[in-house]
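hiii so um. not sure if this is the right channel but i have a protein structure encoded as tokens and i wanna go backwards to a sequence. like what aa goes where. can anyone help
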């Protein structure tokens, strides 16, 4: 297995730019999740949704991780379209949040949130795979990753973020 990047990066400056943008994308992705999680249930209660429906609605993301995540990530990997998958899921998630904000009926909120989670939950594994293909990781000698349930990954997302961050902050590069 080659230790070079699978995404052509012409120079060290381009590699640094890739790592910096990747770190910014990870920060934005996890920042959005962090802002969403504590306030989503408060918003559901504020629009008048019953506590039992809130429990059902907030159970959707874990269910999609085991059902839809392997399908979406597997499709993106077989078509060699990780970047395109990230773009599509990102825009669809943003659109889903806009539509979700207009709903106040529990069934409609559940349907919109379910559709949105089917595209939101694969973003992290798709980004992990894209990062590992785009950044040469000399410590492991491997840049490939397989997405999906039970997949083989050379690095965890935290180690990948650390590798990207260290590449963007090396002195003299």
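sure thing!! here u go:
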């Amino acid at each position: 297995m080659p230790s070079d990047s699978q995404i052509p990066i012409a120079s060290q400056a381009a590699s640094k730019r890739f790592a910096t943008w990747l770190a910014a994308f990870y920060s934005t992705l996890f920042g959005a999740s962090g802002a969403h999680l504590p306030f989503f249930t408060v918003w559901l209660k504020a629009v008048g949704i019953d506590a039992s429906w809130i429990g059902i609605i907030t159970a959707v993301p874990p269910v999609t991780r085991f059902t839809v995540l392997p399908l979406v990530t597997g499709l993106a990997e077989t078509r060699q379209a990780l970047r395109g998958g990230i773009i599509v899921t990102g825009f669809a998630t943003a659109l889903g949040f806009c539509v979700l904000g207009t709903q106040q009926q529990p069934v409609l909120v559940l349907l919109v949130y379910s559709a949105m989670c089917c595209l939101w939950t694969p973003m992290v594994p798709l980004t992990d795979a894209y990062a590992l293909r785009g950044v040469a990781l000399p410590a492991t000698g491997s840049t490939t990753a397989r997405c999906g349930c039970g997949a083989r990954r050379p690095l965890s997302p935290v180690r990948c973020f650390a590798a990207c961050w260290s590449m963007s902050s090396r002195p003299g590069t």
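oh and The chain has one domain: 12-168.
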